[in-house]
User: Which sequence fits this backbone?
């Protein structure tokens, strides 16, 4: 059963619907022409309807990342994230947006077994959320799966370099590609994923020169995170860039200190409740005089 409604004029989630104007996989792919992207592609993660509404006018793509495991659910990694979580948050983000392409991450365990398993899970994500694309992690090993999906109506975003779902193999979240051999593998991964039909590729946590070489040599747009200024676009986890966490990776730029501002607001509220200065006449119902 569908859990989403797109572009209904009565929906609070989509107050100014412009049907047909949403970015599409082909329109994102077409931003890179002859190896160059005139205007960098802007992508942020979003997990909730209201955040999607706020980010949508500024973004080309919204990613419902499986980083929601840590960011929303307080899990230790993305490994425990489920299909149900991705579908519920994906549907909320689609309801809160009308312009950006919404892509939803395929969670760990939902696509690695076989192309058929990947199709079953990706089609469920698309049916239940209304998103326009899925993202999955992995390079050469995932190329047949990406080809299978893209030939069956499912636009795919690739994800190479630091792939957080492989944390138990990688042994941590450190930057990838420090040795020549590893760098070669990451470049081969990006090429394989592009050749398999991904319409763009996230390159995460790699040495800068690797990302630059990939952006210059691979035909589809490369979206960097902890990668390089030369990428065709950039993505960040929204809570990181808003300053919601004390500690953030080196590649994050904080554009705000929301954690500090929320703490201050909560402290002000608590003080006013305790000294009875909230609520005032402005916030209470009284008979009209
Ligand atoms: O899950 C996520 O948020 C991601 C981005 C970091 C690219 O995959």
Assistant:
């Amino acid at each position: 059963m569908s859990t989403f409604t797109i572009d209904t004029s009565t929906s609070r989630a989509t107050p100014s619907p412009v049907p047909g104007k949403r970015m599409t996989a082909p329109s994102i792919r077409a931003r890179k022409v002859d190896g160059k992207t005139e205007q960098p592609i802007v992508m942020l993660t979003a997990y909730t309807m209201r955040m999607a509404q706020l980010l949508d006018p500024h973004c080309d793509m919204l990613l419902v990342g499986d980083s929601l495991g840590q960011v929303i659910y307080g899990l230790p990694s993305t490994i425990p994230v489920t299909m149900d979580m991705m579908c519920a948050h994906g549907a909320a983000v689609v309801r809160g947006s009308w312009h950006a392409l919404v892509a939803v991450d395929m969670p760990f365990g939902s696509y690695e077994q076989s192309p058929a398993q990947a199709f079953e899970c990706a089609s469920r994500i698309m049916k239940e959320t209304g998103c326009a694309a899925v993202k999955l992690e992995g390079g050469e090993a995932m190329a047949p799966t990406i080809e299978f999906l893209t030939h069956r109506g499912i636009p795919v975003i690739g994800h190479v370099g630091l792939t957080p779902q492989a944390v138990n193999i990688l042994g941590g979240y450190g930057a990838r590609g420090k040795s020549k051999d590893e760098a070669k593998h990451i470049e081969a991964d990006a090429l394989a994923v592009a050749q398999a039909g991904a319409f763009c590729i996230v390159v995460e946590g790699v040495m800068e020169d690797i990302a630059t070489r990939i952006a210059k040599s691979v035909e589809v747009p490369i979206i960097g995170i902890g990668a390089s200024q030369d990428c065709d676009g950039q993505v960040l986890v929204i809570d990181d860039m808003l300053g919601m966490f004390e500690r953030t990776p080196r590649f994050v730029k904080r554009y705000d200190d929301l954690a500090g501002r929320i703490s201050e607001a909560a402290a002000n509220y608590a003080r006013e409740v305790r000294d009875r200065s909230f609520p005032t006449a402005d916030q209470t119902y009284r008979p009209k005089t």
